[in-house]
Every structure is written in structure tokens, then in C-alpha cells.
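User: Predict the complex with nicotinamide-adenine-dinucleotide.
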Amino acid sequence: MRALQYTTFGQPPEIVDVEKPVPGPGQVLVRVTAAGICHSDEFVMSLPEEVYRGAGYPLPLTLGHEGAGTVAELGEGVTEFAVGDAVAVYGPWGCGHCHRCAEGKENYCANATAEGIFPPGLGAPGAMAEYLLVDDPRHLIPLDGLDPVENVSLTDAGLTPYHAIKQSAAKLGAGTYAVVIGVGGLGHVGVRILKAITGATVIALDVSEDKLALAKEVGADHTLLSNEDAIAAVREITGGLGADAVFDFVGANPTMAMATGMASVEADVTIVGIGGGTMQLAFQQVPFDAAVRMPYWGSRAELMEVLDLARRGQIGVEVERFSLEDGPEAYRRLHEGSIRGRAVLVP
Ligand code: NAD
Ligand code: ZN
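Assistant: Here is the predicted structure with nicotinamide-adenine-dinucleotide placed in the model:
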């Protein structure tokens, strides 16, 4: 079968031919109908060789940690699904038996690292291929009528912001303000989730006017260029108080400094982007009683909630479609910052 693999350090991924996997006992083979492209893929492919190897990533690596498809073959003993069922893949695989996994929070599994369990596309062979081997049926959620291409990115670009925002939802009642920094794949869904599940007025920031136009389209109340004037502009919009929650989907030095600068007393500052930034934690740098959090992905139950929001039409993803063969071009477009919403490969 064809797969899009990262094969050579420092080089773009390429289409290769690999063996079609065979599901062992308890596993499920999924015929991929859609696979989303995330900035984290680019982050992984930009790692120096020793860091990449140190993190346990194999080379070659089939990319794709946002996957959807139809069940193609069931391994021995799998009864939860039937061949042909349309499913979304929960990506942050855990051991399934530790305390956090029991809560559905496999993104924070206590044993994944020790047991060498990796998410598809981020260690295990990913969804940018004709078929994806899924290690356990609990990592499949029925799409139940959702279009795979339109919704595949909810498994990360939806789930990650949802997990981040849900933890701050109690602080985001009517009359409050939330800031979204970076209106790309995750950020534009983040704006929609804020509008769907909180009462906050949403202020979106980006360096690109096109992304700010997208932010408006998906419901942002205010849009601002992300520059040295942005902190003052947020202070003005919020009556001098600052935002009750700031979600930084970039995570670089300038955005992390902005994030604390535009937060209010008792705010939640959530850094989702892995942009290599560090943050000054000091009195006068961070508002009193503000909390800073760096979440990773989300829980299985939260993915079910995200898909429910989509089924009710309350959230959705802006998608640009590419063929599997055009995957390298899609990554090039992501790198130049010209993808509107999320790029999705359709094998
Ligand atoms: P993306 O490329 O689709 O979007 C990034 C957006 O940020 C773009 O719109 C870009 O114009 C904007 N941007 C860049 N610099 C900016 C600045 N200085 N100020 C404001 N906006 C700026 O990326 P994505 O796929 O949405 O991923 C976003 C980040 O989140 C990446 O760092 C990715 O690795 C990370 N990520 C983290 C998790 C997690 O679990 N914590 C999960 C998925 C992705
Ligand atoms: Zn676990």
C-alpha cells in the first residue's frame, strides 16, 4: 500500500510502498478515508537527529495522527465493530489499565513511555496511508454520520483546544473575555469551541490578515494583528482588566510573553503551541493568582463530546483537501503558512 513517510532527516516526507498491515488479536485494520496534517508533524520532522531518536521515534515514520476511516478487518476477538463501520481514531494511545487511562485520559497515560506505546503518526505507523493498524477498538469512536474528511481533524485540532478550553470553562461565563493566539488548524476550531461552550467574548490574534479574516468567519468578536500593540489593544477591549483566559496556539517567545501580558488577575493562561518558547514567571510578569497550564491533546470522553458538538452543527473544521500523493505539497503549504484551516489528505 502507499504511505506518506518521513524517511530522511531534514528532508520532506515522501510517498513509498509499504506492506499492508495484518491485524493481530484485539487489533483493528482501518481503511483510511481521511488524515489531517498538523503543525506538530512539522515540529517532529524539524527535530535534530539525536533529539528525534532520543524521543523514541522510528525512521522511516508513516505520518498522520489525525485519522478517520472504515473498519476493514477485525483481529481475533474484536466484537465492538463490524467491517464497514465508519470511525474516527483517538490518537493519544495509552496502556489502557493505569489510573489515568481508566479515566479515559490516555493522553496522560502513566505507562505509555515505559511500555513504548506511541500515537499513530507520532511513533507508531500513522494514518497517511491506505490502511492504519489500530491497537485496540477502544481507540475508535463511531463517526455516526459525520463526514470523515470534514471532521477527521476534530481528533486533534478539535480535541486539543476542547480539552484546553473545557478546563477554563468555569471562568468563561457571560461578560468574560477569551483570547486565542494563532488562528491556524487548532486555533480556528478553538474560536468555534469558545463560542459553542462558553459565554466569553472572543478576541483572536494572528500575524496573517487572511487568518484574521478566517477568525471573523468562525465567530471571533474582535481580531487583532499579533504585534507589540496587541497587549494594549486587549486591555482596551477588556476595560483595562485583561482577558479571563488566554489560549496560545503558537507557544513562541513573543506569544508567551503576550499571553501573560494580556491576562487578567486570576486568569488561566494556557500554552498549547509547541513553538519552543519559554516564559518569565515572576511577580509583575504574571498577574496575581493567574494559572499557567501546558496541556497535551485530550481524553477519549472529550473526543466523544467534540464529535457530538460537530453532529449538532455547533463546531466544524475549515478543510483544504489534498490527495495522499500531494502530501509533501500540503506540508510545504503548511510551512509557508498558507493553509486555510486544516489540510486533510484523502487517500
Ligand atoms: P498551524 O500552522 O495550522 O497554525 C499556526 C497559526 O499561528 C497560523 O495561523 C500562524 O499564522 C499563526 N502564528 C504564527 N506566529 C504567530 C504569532 N507570533 N502570533 C500569532 N499568530 C501566529 O498550526 P496548528 O497545527 O494549529 O498547531 C499549532 C501549534 O500547536 C503547533 O505548535 C503544534 O505543534 C501545537 N500542537 C500542540 C498540541 C498539544 O497537545 N499541546 C496538539 C497539536 C498541536
Ligand atoms: Zn495508561
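The first strand starts at residue 2 and ends at 6.
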